[in-house]
Amino acid sequence: MFRKLRNDELGRLSAEEFKKSEKLPVVLVLDNIRSQHNIGSAFRSSDSFRAEKIFLCGICAVPPTPEIHKAALGAEFSVEWEYFRETAAAVEKLKGQGYTVISVEQAENSVSLEKLELSGSKKYALIFGNEVKGVQQQIVDMSDSVLEIPQFGTKHSLNVSVSVGIVLWECCKALRIIG
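^ that's the sequence the OP posted. Answer follows.
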């Protein structure tokens, strides 16, 4: 028999403990994400996997908003974030800080997600693009590599918030944070 655990049995960190905790060496870059629910979901997944930070770029809304909060459930208060008017400026800053920049996109010569290899001695920036247009070509061109999530159905893409969760999970696996 299985009994669902109560929230107080989950051993979760407080927001203060989260801010002081060791982070996954990953920054998310949201490139012109239109939906505030997708932004909130990215915050929630970033909290769950202890991502370092989120860079919100271009048309992305920034906290606090009711729509972001509805999906983030408070993760917008635990995960650090920064806003950039231009995604290129965010990428330049990250490259200057030694991050390996990876666009998550369908592109020629992309690396399929199941072949993802990361080094625990490096820091990574994952770029996720607009719900319709994807990652801007200019940003793909600035990237060190492109990562593609394999898909087998009739649709051309996954929802960006789903992609964030999948890729963060795989980053944890690749960095041996989880089994």
